[in-house]
Specification:
Radius of gyration: 35 Å
Structural class: mainly alpha
Helix content: 25-40%
Order of helices and strands: HHHHHEE
Distance between the termini: 119 Å
Strand order of the largest sheet: 1-2
Number of helices: 5
Shape: elongated
Amino acid sequence: EKVVGDVELVQMDQGGIPSAPANLPQNRQYAVYGMLGGLALCIVFLALKSLMRRTIRSDEELKQFFNTVYLGNIPPVVFKKRSKKRSNAILIDTEGAPFAFVESMRSIRHRVEREAKNADAKSILVSSAMDSEGKTTAAINLAQALARHGSRVLLVDADLRHPSVLSAMGMEPVEKGTVIRYEGQVVQV
């Protein structure tokens, strides 16, 4: 039927089966784009995470966040494990304790004494929010440093679930109600 007028069909190319696709896939180029995009996303994620992280990196930031006095820090100490009987805590009277560790505990003891005198405090609490942050090590070493300096010290292990002061000091667990006295060396009474 005639609709618009005369229609003429001209064949421009001979049809046939193609031997190769007209648009070859560029897998290598897509892989490079994907890796670069993933790397960029990782960098952006890590940058945002580090900027939003509320980590205290200096004593000024500690004062700013918590409005408290900075007493000092304890340097990390690693001993080679030679026997399984060795306790987990590092004590200031342990043979081979690094000088930096012993001096940091002495300076913390001095600052604690000064702050306790200014506040007229009779007791000191060592606490933290999570496990394995060094509460026992700090408490034992602070108690030993205070006792060596002439102060009267009573160390109470108030961790009722996992008491660790006795084992950290190299002592066997004792019967409840037993008094343990420390004067330069550990004596069970």
